[in-house]
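QA checklist item 7 of 12: single-chain prediction sanity check.
[x] sequence parsed
[x] length recorded as 391
[x] structure emitted
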Amino acid sequence: MGSSSQKDVITEPLNKQFLILLGFIMGLRELSMTMLNPFISLFCRQLNGSTPFLAGLALGIYGLTNGFFQIPYGVWSDKIGRKKLLILGLLQLFLGLLLAGLTSNIYVFIFARALQGSGAIMGIAYSWVGDVTPKEKSNQAMGFVGMIVAPSAVVAFVAGPILYQFVSLKWLFLGAALLIGIALLFILFCTHEKFTRPNTNSHPWAMLWKMVHNKNLVFISLLGVIYNFIMACLFFVLPDKFAHYMPISNLWLVFAPALIIGMIVMKLGTRDADYGHFKRVSFISLLFLGSGLILLLAPFAFCIWFSAILVMSGFMCLTTVLPSLINRLFLVDSRGSANGILQTFTFLGFFLGPTLSGIYIQINVAYLIYVTVGLLCTVGLILLYFIDTEQ
């Protein structure tokens, strides 16, 4: 699969086959992690030594370690290729899920979650998509992969609560480890990368230092913090809200329609972004995220559904158009590093969201969750003004 292909990614068969395969592999990863996310805070209550803060840390530390490893893995993938790093990251995720399913101690579980997060492969996968895609088709290619990955999330949100009625959460973790093992086999034996070492004399870390000072990249990455912060807050807060109205095993009734509607919104958003309306898509997505999370304050059951739909729609749009913009703005020799920086910021948001939420709840100031979300969305709308999509 040459990185220099400039054919239409949607109509050229070889590229399409690759995108389907990569989407399937990332879909297995999405299925394994999404199936578990709504139950992390509940699972922590069963573990020895658990507190609200430690439960929030257990959910969020995945984002912290994922963010920490995104940049070095991205830089490394620019030098030795994408496939090797994808294999390493999936192996770390596999071991972390296995350990999580075998422990009954909150501190070991936190370590297992940290190990899961250290398998930082999202930026590498996005870069690989960019390697085989012409710039003018970047959003369409990312949306194409997203349309394969997103149904995995739908299946996860339906299957997770149903399986929860019949098997313990420990077995859910072990089942997720099995899915990652299958993904490892596919990446090992079914993908091929024709990697050409970039023809550059620049030291990779010197190149990274230069990109860190790229204001455009920093502003885009800060948007990543915001959207993942809010999504992680939804995972942490919504299950408790939902439990006031229905058994937690019915949680799929909220997330399944939210994912389906989110897929439709993402498809429309990526198409609009390809027509040059990145800022409009991002503006609407931020409004969806902020208003959706704040809807959880309303004491009505139907607001939980609207909340999930709005947050999921905004999340899915931004998680697609931001890396697409990165792929258009950066060349192949620095694309992995740039996506690594974006994903580092993004997963920092996933760490901060539930961790701060757990602290707020433990000290009885839960309302600050919604204040923080409102402030972050305001900051995001301001950042959009300063992003240059044609640098």
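[x] summary fact logged: Confidence is low (pLDDT under 50) at residues 1-14.
[ ] second reviewer sign-off
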